[in-house]
Amino acid sequence: MTSSDDSGPITRTIALDHAGRWKAFWASVSVSALTIMDVSKVNVGLASIEQALGGGSTELQLVVSGYILAFGLSLVPFGRIGDQRSRRTLMIAGLIGFTLASAMCALAPNIWILVIARFLQGIAAGVQMPQVMGTIQQVFTGRERGMAFGLFGAIVGLGTALGPTLGGLMIAIGGPTDGWRWIFWMNVPLGLIVIGVLWKVLPEVRRPDAAKVSLDPVGLALFTVVVVTLMLPFLFTTGSPDDSPLRWWLLVPFAVFAMLFVMWEARYASRGGAPLVPLGLFRIASWRNGTVLQSLYFAAMPCVFLLTALYLQQGLGLSALVAGVVTIGFALLSAYSSWQSGRLVARFGRSLVIFGLVIVLIATIALVITAHFATDAATPWIMAGLMVVGGVGGGCVISPNQTLTLAEIPPSEGGLAGSVGQLGQRVGNAIGAAVALSLFYATIYREEGEVPHETVYNDAYATGLLAVIGFLAASLAIALVDLGARRRAARPNAREG
Asked: How far apart are CA 303 and CA 300, in angstroms?
């Protein structure tokens, strides 16, 4: 066993051989695959849910946003607990909860039971996801860590892009009324299988200390208010004229409580406590830049899949399955390029991420051009090809950025640092979806009845993707800033050498 010299609880790790490390990896990422897919696959089932259970736009929005909000709320505290205690126990417990909540979703007799079950499902996802990041950070080092994060990025890319396709397939199999239940039922056998795998092959990479876990209860309460008041206004933004403008007043308490949270965490740390979020993390430029970059990227990319599915179904009248299949090329190519870029990140660094962002940006702009100028028959085929191109770039963003973001983080803080990054992704996803969907539906409400149906949806799709392009451009700007900072930092070292 070895001990960390980091402040806080002593970190005791078990040395694993090569086979043991990769068994731990594959067991862990199988958890993340289930978790990530549920972010996107339910979107295509909303029409089926409405037909079966009824409910208005608010209830349907809660089916999606309840999961994202609960996911975001759970990430940081359970990332901290995982760093201090047993990641293996939390990962298994979280997956058991996720599987039970999935069964509850599938059996929901009405819309409100489904909303509650989705919230519980999100909490369980937030329990297990930080343990995946922490395990990878702790058992791998050097070049092998880059390869591990490369494969992890591949799984994230596959889960995000395959979610709508699997959701559409389940609806096609189960029918328009009960097909949505199959979306949740599929988690149950998969969850049971993964629980068995975790129990059998996942080692305890950390032996818990006898010391009591310090969770910073005041910081946790303030953090909860900060996350809720930030995310709710965006999660309840659909672009409908019925959206209440009063929701934006929640950003006022968000600003107040965010300031109080920072002040409390600084004071708590100065008195010798272990804060929920160590503010020193934000002084690490590589982590700070990488976290902002991935937050902006996740504000963009899930919206590409969502807007494309809406455009193909509502604008061109294609089925949910066909709309989902269009994204398969992105999933497959992003998985392959994530794996390859994990091997190349040590050589090319941030330049590899910049390359990926440029490719994704070009593919997104080409989607807009396709919607406006291609025929209806050719559009899904061209978009499928562009998704392949975008997938190559996407794989060069997620996994290399993850490796670069956590490169200077001590392994004992890996779960927490990774969970803050995951929270950034969830917040980015909520904000990006709110902005893109508002532009999409506002265009439809403004133009419907004034111009032909096809033109309405072409304009709505293009307008929604303008937000995506803006987020991608901002992410690219952060990557360029980080590259410049790294090169400036390398010059003195080169002269000293």
From this structure: 6
Count of all residues that appear for the chain in the document = 497
Which candidate, 140, 102, 93, 144, places its Cα nearest to that of 120?
102
What Rg, from alpha-carbon coordinates, does the chain have?
22
β-bridge partners, 107: none
Rounded to 5 degrees, what are φ and ψ at 206? Answer: -145, 130
Most confident of 43-57, 169-183, 378-392: 378-392
Q: For 11-22, how does the pLDDT look when each residue is reduced to its tens digit (9 = 90+)? A: 344 456 677 788
Q: Which residue bears the tokens 């290399």?
A: 400
Structure-token pair, residue 456: 């309405």
Residue pLDDT, tens place only, 383-411:
999 999 999 998 899 888 888 887 777 76
In one letter, which amino acid is 35? T
Q: What span, in angstroms and rounded, lies between the C-alpha atoms of 330 and 310? A: 17
Q: 3-class DSSP state for residue 108?
A: coil
- Per-residue HEC secondary structure of 38-73 comes to HHHCCHHHHHHHHHHHCCCHHHHHHHHHHHHHHHHH
- The number of beta carbons lying within 10 Å of the beta carbon of residue 241 is 8
